[in-house]
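#onboarding

Welcome to the new folks! Below is a worked example of what a typical request in this channel looks like: someone posts a single protein sequence, and someone else replies with the predicted structure as tokens. Don't worry about understanding the tokens yet, we'll cover that in week two.

Example request:
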Amino acid sequence: PALLAVVVLLCGGGDAVQLELLARSQRPLWVCQGGRDRVVSPMESLQMVNALIAKGHRKVKFTVHEDLAHNVWTRVYEGEDFYRWLLAQSLP
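Example response:
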């Protein structure tokens, strides 16, 4: 986290036990998930987001694109809001 100003997870999921360092860093985090994803369940990403919030992370965004499967990046990378958000972040 000391090297990154922001973290973006596409179809994230993850191990909720390993999130302590990320939560402590308070780095802005955006998790984007396809609602029809059969590779990484949307529930896995939701559980990770909830675990981060439970550990005190206050800068977590979570977006579910209900109509997309695992290829959620196609819409995320096309979206101007994604790049505006990225460019608004910086290291302290």
